Amino acid sequence: MTAPQVVGVTEPPQAPPSPTGRRAPWWLWAAGVAVVLPLLLPLLSLFARVLGSTGAAVDILFDLRTVELAIRSTALTVLVTGTAMVIGVAAAWLTTSAALPGRRAWAVIVPLPLVIPSYVLALAFLAASGPRGTLASITGWDVPVLDGLPGAWLALTLSTFPFVYLMVAAALLRLDPALEDAARGLGASRWRVFWTVTIPQLRPAIGAGALLVALYTLSDFGAVSLMRFPAFTSVIYAQYAGRLDRTPAAVLSVLLVVIALVIIWAEGRTRGRAAYHSHRPPRARTPEPLSTGETAGGLVFLGTLVTLGVLVPVLVLVTWAWRGASVGESVTIHWGAVGGSLLGSSLAAVVAMAAAIPVVVLIVRYRGRASTWLERTVFVAFSLPHIAVALAVVFFAVRFLGPLYQSLALLVVVYASIFLAQATGSSKASLLQVDPSVEEASRSLGKGPLQTLRLITVPLIRPGLLAGGALVFLTTMKELPATLLLRPTEFDTLAVRIWSAADELFYARAAASALVLLALSAVPLYYLVLRTNPAKGAT
Amino acid sequence: MINRTPRQPAIECRGLFQTFGESVALDDFDLVVEGGSIVSLLGPSGCGKTTALRAIAGFEPPDAGTVSIGGRSVFGDGVDVPPEKRRVGMVFQEYALFPHMTVSNNVGYGVTEEDRDARVAEVLEMAGLTGMGDRLPSELSGGEQQRVALARALAPRPDVVLLDEPFSNLDAPQRERMRRDVRRILRDAGATAVFVTHDQAEALAISDEVAVMRTGHVVQVGSPLDVYQRPADPWVAAFLGESLTLEGIARDGSVKTDLGSFPAAGVSDGPAQVVIRPEWIVPTPAPEGEATVVDREYYGHDQMLLIELADGRRVQARVGPRPVLDPGDLVDLTFEDAVVFPER
């Protein structure tokens, strides 16, 4: 498994377009373009708005506070990326290449923090630390609050290191062990082999994973806002929520989008090179024997990761919810928010699955310049910071869409557009496995393109579509910034409940909602894991 | 099948051109197929035969040229009829059965609602698939899948059936049986069929007419007998079967070579090539013979002898089960037939 597979998205191919027979029917293109417009138009209009107000934009850009903001965001991104790289590479080496007890189990457990939203991790660390925190109440010590830069650093590192871990572990498994054996045979020590032979070969995978971490850190809103760390995303939200003049929020969003685009571009280039080495190795790796001390160290390291990334957060949430309930604080489950989460996520999943069909058919069956651009656009929409995308939609809706602003319909369309890449990712894999002559057979038996799509193509890619839908459901349920900005006034979700309760320091209430969110996420997650498990034989 | 005025060809392709980037797939491709006949399109791989088939079916519109099916123009002069309106049945190399549908639903897919059940039963019986209607394609053997694919293509009563290397996924003994079955089914249906194949023996065995293709162009059309025994040029001769080529000089209606003279009526005087098939070479045991049997491949019903001539050249002769000649035996050679081509 690689990180892109976990998020359900793979980078569009850079291969040259292949010639195919007929051109796609016009309505397929109309549908394919229509599904990217809901995000493309607002983003273009946001850029136009900022470029149109040059004076104000330049003032804001060169304001000292903007420079400070850029420095703080960069510092956090560098810290998180660096730590995640070290942890990810070390964990990947331990689970793939070392003779560690329970290697296979660790390989499954280590990436688990990926399923916990960053703001839930942040909530857990906030609730664990400080004078009121779990740690203080157990030990009686004077525990300082873990917030600001250290808090954001810890929460984001734990929720992003799995990206590096998964990419590097996959690369290690693809590596030909003969090279390392040859170096050992020449008398190099294990340490020297690791630095001079293994690491250079892993560089593309590490690079791609690191850029993914950087992009995620830069885009994260929930953790930095709860940790009261003024990064781009949290400042944009504060500017938007707290001021009448929304130009600063718009300018900062454009700046954030531009930085994200640069990272996406760089990541695409690195990934392209990483894929170059993706052939199967001639033989499997023999795990490196470890001394007792090394084994103990490795186990402590992985154990700490899992404890901090999964066990501690869940236990802290449970104790807070329990404690809150026992002192009579209202921690009752908010059924409105549960319903809102389920409704919004299911609608988003259904819309994304429907929208994925024309996109996937275009990019697989009608490969060419235009469909490659379509695929890239879908991918970029997925990768951009949600706060900036949502803000663009707000501006656009207020100006052009009138009654649609703050409607459930618009929110669902935005969800589906952001996460469309997850639905297309797995459906694309499904369609690639369908022999195009099956569709041609349907055509020559008298069925037109639309009927062929309905009777043959869609039924055959249904497993991929459903998996994509499950993934969209899962990520929509955790979505925070777009929901905050675009939700109808009476509409509530668990993510919003958790964040706003935590933001107002009602940790018990937030913890209860967070536990419900994790429990609800487990269902689609279980389906997805079951599906990707080759032992079950499912496609 | 469809009533057609006589003499109206079932398929008529004129001057088809098709390029994919740099490579030319069809280069002035012409083909006329008479109604009710089975024609094979034979050529080495990469000669454009599948492209031609896809142009007829409408999957890949060519860059230029015209195609008409059953007297109706389907491509060219601004016309481009989509595949679903061409009334063409297609049998794909990998069969392309709909994996999510039963055999009956596959076969009935192209048939209108009213007569679906009756037609499906009829076609299944014709294809020897009675009783298999409820199975899924994944539960069938290769040969059965092949028959379902053919039945599905025939069910809507198409004007023509196109088959793209239909036997290439079957093993040798199955292939021969299917070849016979398919020919019978097509005959029973009275269908017009075009086969694409790179297998000479298959083309000769199954078709009424063979169209030999090279580099996007049909170089010879004729009965299997014609193309084998009277190939249009040395390339066709060599492509259709093993042969021995001799250089010689033609004069007054005969060609003189170092292995004797051959009649060459109508060949202009000058250098010429003589092509001789292995079965046209007749070795006779002769104690004073000029040639020696070097090796023998014995097949039971016939045998292939490798014979060394006095000058050290080696030729292959295909003979019946007799005479029994062993390596080392001396023989005389006579030639029953030969094809003569003037030198270019």
Notes on the protein architecture:
The complex is a heterodimer of chains A (539) and B (344). Chain A is an all-alpha fold. Chain A has 2 domains: 37-284, MetI-like fold (Orthogonal Bundle); 329-539, MetI-like (MetI-like fold, Orthogonal Bundle), CATH 1.10.3720.10. Chain A is 76% helix and 0% strand. Chain A contains 24 helices and no strands. Chain A has helices at residues 3-6, 26-52, 54-61, 64-97, 103-109, 118-128, 134-139, 148-174, 177-185, 190-219, 222-226, 232-242, 247-274, 292-326, 335-365, 369-383, 386-401, 408-418, 420-432, 436-444, 449-478, 481-486, 494-503, 507-532. The longest helix of chain A has 35 residues, at 292-326. The relative contact order of chain B is 0.12. Chain B has 2 domains: 11-87 and 158-238, Rossmann fold (3-Layer(aba) Sandwich); 243-342, Beta Barrel (OB fold (Dihydrolipoamide Acetyltransferase, E2P)). Chain B is of the alpha+beta class. In chain B, helix 3 (116-126) crosses helix 4 and helix 4 runs parallel beside helix 5. Chain A binds chain B through residues 19, 21-22, 435, 437-438, 440-449, 455-456, 459-460, and chain B through 20-21, 54, 57-61, 82-86, 88-90, 92-94, 96-100, 109-110, 152-153, 156.
Secondary-structure map with pairings?
The complex is a heterodimer of chains A (539) and B (344).
Chain A: H1 3-6, H2 26-52, H3 54-61, H4 64-97, H5 103-109, H6 118-128, H7 134-139, H8 148-174, H9 177-185, H10 190-219, H11 222-226, H12 232-242, H13 247-274, H14 292-326, H15 335-365, H16 369-383, H17 386-401, H18 408-418, H19 420-432, H20 436-444, H21 449-478, H22 481-486, H23 494-503, H24 507-532
Chain B: E1 11-20, E2 23-33, E3 38-42, H1 49-57, E4 64-69, E5 72-76, E6 79-80, E7 88-91, H2 103-108, H3 116-126, H4 142-154, E8 160-164, H5 172-189, E9 192-197, H6 200-206, E10 209-214, E11 217-222, H7 224-229, H8 234-240, E12 244-251, E13 254-257, E14 260-263, E15 270-276, E16 281-285, E17 291-298, E18 303-308, E19 314-319, E20 330-335, E21 339-342
Parallel strand pairs in B: 3-9, 3-10, 7-8, 8-9
Antiparallel strand pairs in B: 1-2, 1-4, 4-5, 5-6, 10-11, 12-13, 12-15, 13-14, 15-21, 16-20, 17-18, 17-20, 18-19
Helix pairs in contact in B: 3-4, 4-5
